[in-house]
Amino acid sequence: MIDEFVAVPCTEVIAEFGEGVVWDHVHSELLWVDLEAGVLYRGRPGPAGVELLGRIELGYPLGAVAPAQDGGWLVAAGPGFARLTEDGAMTWISQPAAGEPGLRMNDGACDPTGRFWAGTMAYAETPGAGTLYRLDPDGTTTAMVSGTTISNGLGWSGDATTLWFADSGRGSVDSFRFDAAAGTLSSRRTVIAVDPEEGVPDGLTVDAEDHIWVALFEGGEVRRYAPDGELVARVPLPVSCPTSCCFGGADLATLFISTAHKSPAAARGITEPDAGRLFRADTLVRGVAQPFFATAQRQS
Q: Catalytic residue numbers?
């Protein structure tokens, strides 16, 4: 039996390309981005929906954000990784896509030790043009997976031995054996393969039972998969392009979903009034607190 949960819109803000929703469990805030516009949004869930607390314009395409242990945020934006403060000041840490105007950073997340992982992709979505990078707290940036097309969702198992990674260009979610101490990957295999007619795997999150929740771009739903790839639940949406998801709220029991207003459906003239808003769903499942970017000992 496949469970089904109901999602409802919960923001007034409509992002052109909403992405990268993250729960900051220390400040009880939701963070999400408008990717192409380069805007970071901050909000707080309440009875009437998510109250907007603020927005920051970066001036670069913004793929992902993570809170930092020592304040502010770590962002994957434009050509690389940067620190961002509440007043909007950016300090570059590294720019792996510098000198490559056809590439930009995309989705990312922190691993259980506080390293930040994010990948590049070509604006033209050129197959194999991207790379998944690991940013260590001291600023060291290491290429971890080459030949990616649209580097997207990342999530780790509760025991920190498995990384799940979505490459939208491949239409799959792959697992890697993860060595938390060394930050290395091995034994890649495809766990979830999505029929292109059912959508494209985009952002993802992992719950407290090590099940993977995957947003299906152009698929109009978020799916929950068991670690072995079995489909066990769906969250249908009234919009065609969910982009990412996370668990948040005081008890980490609410699934928040970002969506895109700018979409293939919109280009075809299909009207989706709630496209671009955040959605929320009560799933009877709890998430886990997401790691912050670790305090830097040295930055270059």
A: 202
